[in-house]
Structures are given as C-alpha cells and as structure tokens.
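Methods, example record. To illustrate the input and output format used throughout this study, we show the complete record for IFM2 protein. The sequence lines were provided to the predictor; the line carrying structure tokens was produced by it.
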Amino acid sequence: PSHRMQQPLPPYEVLPAEVSMEELPRSTTVLMEESPPQPRDHLVWSLFTTIYGNFCCLGLLAFVFSVKSRDRKVLGDYSGARSYGSTAKWLNITALVINIIIVIIVITLVSLAVSGFLSRMNPPPKYGRN
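The corresponding predicted structure is encoded as:
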C-alpha cells in the first residue's frame, strides 16, 4: 500500500563523469513578484455618507456597492472589486457635491430670512420732515 502512495520522481540527467558537483557554479535565483495593489472599497466613506448625507439614498447605494466591493476582494476577484469600488466612489462624490450645494442653499436662505427679520424689527431711522 505504501508503494501506491508515493509519487514518481521527476526525470533527471546523470552528470558526465568528467564533471563534478564542486566545479558547477552555485547560485540561487529568487523571483519577487509585486502583488497588485489592493482595490479600494471606500466602505468608511460610504458609511459616513449614509449616516450624514443620504440624499436620494445615494449614500445607501454607495454603502451597498462598497460591501459588494469588499466581498469581491475577499473572493480574489480584483477586477470586480475595482469596478464596485469605483461605483461606490462616484456615488459618494455625487452625494457629497449635492450635500454641499444643499448646505450652501440653506445657509443663504437662513441668512436672508434673518436679515429680513432684523430689518423689520429695527426700521431705519427717518431723516427730514415728518
């Protein structure tokens, strides 16, 4: 039974009689491959967008795509992870720009309302004849 479990040895060549092992050069070559950069999933950014600026559910969509990107990365599908991560990034950027515009509009409206309210409370002084 132990003979069946053993793997056959790889083929080899016998050295000629005039060559000895001491005469052969000794060197080792190690090939180092750089691993591809890990695709980004933007999960934390999507979480904050979902909590703080979820305009038209863009933050929630970004969070879903971020989770999908992380799942693809765990499975080793880097192209799928990169695609889902890119979609999450652009959804986060879109939500951020829309939220900045909304904040600017709200600040403008509030400042106009406050200035109109203050101008009614303190009318300007009248000069001249009554």
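Annotations derived from this record:
The chain has four helices and no strands.
The helical segments are 2-5, 43-52, 58-75, 78-121.
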